[in-house]
Write a structure and sequence with these properties.
The complex is a heterodimer of chains A (176) and B (163). Chain A has helices spanning 23-37, 51-55, 72-87, 102-111, 132-148, 156-161, and strands at residues 7-13, 41-48, 62-64, 95-98, 118-122, 150-153, 167-170. By secondary structure, chain A is α/β, with parallel strands linked by helices. Chain A has a single domain (7-170), classed as Glycogen Phosphorylase B (Rossmann fold, 3-Layer(aba) Sandwich), CATH 3.40.50.2000. Chain A has a seven-stranded parallel sheet, with helices on both faces. In chain A, strand 1, helix 1 and strand 2 (41-48) form a beta-alpha-beta unit. Chain A is globular. Chain A starts with 6 loop residues before the first strand and ends in a 6-residue tail after the last strand. A six-stranded parallel sheet of chain B has the order 3-2-1-4-5-6, sandwiched between helices. The longest helix of chain B has 12 residues, at 118-129. Chain B has a single domain (3-162), classed as 3-Layer(aba) Sandwich (Rossmann fold). Chain B has helices spanning 16-25, 40-45, 58-67, 82-89, 100-106, 118-129, 138-149, 151-162; strands spanning 3-7, 30-34, 49-52, 70-73, 94-97, 111-113. With 163 residues, chain B is of the alpha/beta class. In chain B, strand 4, helix 4 and strand 5 form a beta-alpha-beta unit. Chain B is built from eight helices and six strands. Classes of the chains: A alpha/beta (176), B alpha/beta (163). Chain A binds chain B through residues 7, 9, 18-21, 23, 26, 29-30, 33-34, 37-38, 41, 51, 55, 95, 97, 117, 119, 122-126, 128, 152, 154-158, 169-176, and chain B through 34, 54-58, 61, 77-80, 82-83, 85-86, 89, 100-101, 104-105, 145, 148-155, 157-159, 161-163.
């Protein structure tokens, strides 16, 4: 009998340098839990070297080193390129799941060209303030989420509010 | 003296004056307030309030959570509001703004007030911390989180979708 190849799950998240009270930590902890409890899966998580990545110790996870004092746009671009360059070499049947910040969403849109099973995981879609920069980032985020097309939500209310042509799923949020 | 842990930045138009009201009403208690920077003027007025900006100390966060007598979520932008679930897991009373997404997630396991209704918030918070009038079953609230949002349950749902 032919052995089935081990399924590979690749998770992508950016990770702030000065704040641990965000969803990056939950995302990292979720895939840490999956990696440690589902031995039939190979789980690899890519993040930058932010505060949450230092809290979770998992030898299977990989960090892309950035200069924390660089300008935000530069960090965005370096991280997106880092995600794409590191993930592209994996088998095309791998499953890619991006968190909901611009660098991983942008990378996921590009990676979708190779990886048919690409998803993003959304916590909420609130516009925090109405400044032009925030509106622009929000619009870009919506555009990238719609490009990815497979969206996993952590709450039903946000899922019901979000209209899109692709696939919507609900999983809830893990509380550790 | 009780420890009350707040999350949420007072709204500039609607919240700052009400924030003063709340701070004065509960002046005998100790506040931890996680929010964006409110300005030195406000922070100097209330030396007993510990303003927490940009939490990067997991150990300190854990200590505050363990020691709190009540958790108040007055953030008006929420998707899921993880601190509420974390407080429920510790069997702490929770009072939150009745945002559609928060009510959708936590159902009747916590107390709610309408956003910016600080008068009602004061009444509810008094019920929780002062006179043993708080009636919610904190064990039931903890079980609700375990039933719906345990890592095992969420992982199973995730793998059902992606595999």
């Amino acid at each position: 009998m032919k052995d089935e190849k081990q399924k590979i799950v690749i998770a992508l998240t950016s990770d702030p340098y000065h704040n641990i009270y965000g969803y990056a930590l939950v995302f990292i902890r979720l895939f840490d839990y999956v990696q440690k409890n589902k031995p039939d899966l190979s789980v690899v998580l890519f993040s930058n070297d932010g505060t949450s990545s230092k809290v979770v110790n998992n030898a299977h996870f990989k960090q892309i080193r950035l200069n924390p004092s660089s300008k935000l746009l530069r960090k965005f671009i370096e991280l997106s390129v880092g995600f794409i360059r590191n993930v592209w070499k994996y088998d095309k049947h791998s499953i890619v799941i991006a968190n909901a910040e611009i660098p991983e969403l942008l990378a996921a849109c590009v990676l979708k060209m190779k990886f048919k099973r690409t998803y993003c995981l959304i916590q909420d879609l609130c516009l925090r303030d109405t400044s032009p920069a925030s509106r622009m980032i929000h619009s870009l985020r919506m555009f990238l989420i719609r490009c990815i097309g497979n969206v996993i939500f952590t709450n039903r209310h946000t899922m019901n509010q979000f209209s899109m042509k692709g696939n919507k799923f609900y999983i809830g949020n893990p509380i550790f | 003296m009780k420890n009350i842990y707040f999350v949420g930045t007072p709204n500039k138009e609607k919240g700052i004056e009400e924030f003063h009201k709340l701070a004065l009403e509960f002046k005998e208690h100790h506040f931890f307030w996680f929010c964006f920077k409110l300005g030195e003027g406000i922070e100097k007025m209330y030396p007993r309030i510990e303003f927490l900006v940009g939490f990067d100390n997991e150990a300190m966060k854990e200590r505050i959570k363990q020691d709190m007598d009540a958790f108040v979520c007055c953030s008006h932008f929420e998707g899921f509001s993880l601190p509420i679930a974390e407080a429920m897991m510790l069997r702490k009373p929770v009072l939150a703004y009745a945002l559609d997404e928060v009510v959708d997630v936590y159902d009747d396991c916590i107390e709610y007030v309408q956003p910016f209704d600080f008068d009602r918030m004061i009444v509810k918070l008094r019920e929780i911390i002062d006179n043993n009038a708080y009636k919610k079953d904190l064990y039931k609230a903890e079980q609700y989180i375990l039933d719906h949002y345990s890592p095992d349950k969420v992982t199973d749902k995730l793998l059902d979708i992606i595999l």
